[in-house]
Amino acid sequence: MIDIARETDLREIAKVHTKCFPGYFLTKYGEKLLAQYYGEYLAEGVPFVIARDNGKIVGFCMGYIGQTKAKTKFLKKNFFGMVGKTLKLMLTFDKEVYSRIKTNILPSIGDGNSEEDEEDEAYLLSICVLEEKRGTGLSRELVEAFEEQLIKKGCKGYALFAIEDNDRGIGFYEKMGFEEVRSKDGSIKFRKALQSN
Ligand SMILES: CC(C)(COP(=O)(O)OP(=O)(O)OC[C@H]1O[C@@H](n2cnc3c(N)ncnc32)[C@H](O)[C@@H]1OP(=O)(O)O)[C@@H](O)C(=O)NCCC(=O)NCCS
User: Fold this and answer.
1) Which tens digit of pLDDT belongs to each residue from 30-42?
2) How far is the CA of 146 from the centre of ligand 1 (A)?
3) What ranges do the domains of the chain cover?
4) Cβ–ligand 1 contact at 171 (below 6 Å)
5) pLDDT at 188 over 90
6) What is the pLDDT of residues 65-85, one digit of tens each?
7) Among protein residues, the one whose CA lies closest to atom 13 of ligand 1
8) Given a cut of 50, is residue 88 above it in pLDDT?
9) Domain 2-193 maps to which CATH number in 3.40.50.150, 3.40.50.360, 3.40.630.30, 3.40.50.10420?
10) Strands 187-193 and 179-184, how do they pair?
């Protein structure tokens, strides 16, 4: 069953994120901060849908339309927690941490929108489905529900970024009608036009 995400779903959403994106940059900050991160987007009323199975959240898809201040607000509210965690992560000398601080955190301290954000009207930021539910068509249902929200708000298209070695994710996006726009620093930008009926 596909549903609109609510504030009470945030802790479960953070758990699903942690299981689906092990080793990813944001995951390293822990479930509490993750729930607050997604919470800032939810509070802005962005398109945010969840998939439930027997009442439990097994996947979600979210993004935003136009300019967003969610990341900046999140960083401001969690400044000390983020600095402490970031310093700890930097001590692991993980290359991804350094590159993500440069591309994700530093641009958000300015006006909250990176260069890429201004090129497209909407972005899909996160989609995931628990491993045991992959290959079942749930992810397609999530994308369709997400797109329905974009269309309702008058969007004509949207974009997303995928890590270039995420073969399954890229296979899925291509199957869903996305086209590659460009590839840079290990990440590929995809775009899809939307048609309202
Ligand atoms: C990305 C994700 C939501 C897709 O959902 P899914 O249920 O796995 O997707 P599907 O099985 O419907 O489609 C995957 C497509 O990828 C391809 N694929 C499947 N397994 C693959 C594999 N092991 N390697 C490469 N491609 C693969 C196929 O083209 C498949 O389409 P098909 O059903 O026509 O064969 C899900 O895999 C997931 O949550 N992954 C972890 C989080 C993630 O990476 N999110 C995307 C970030 S960019």
Assistant:
1) 999 999 999 999 9
2) 17
3) 2-193
4) yes
5) yes
6) 998 999 889 988 988 877 777
7) 172
8) yes
9) 3.40.630.30
10) antiparallel
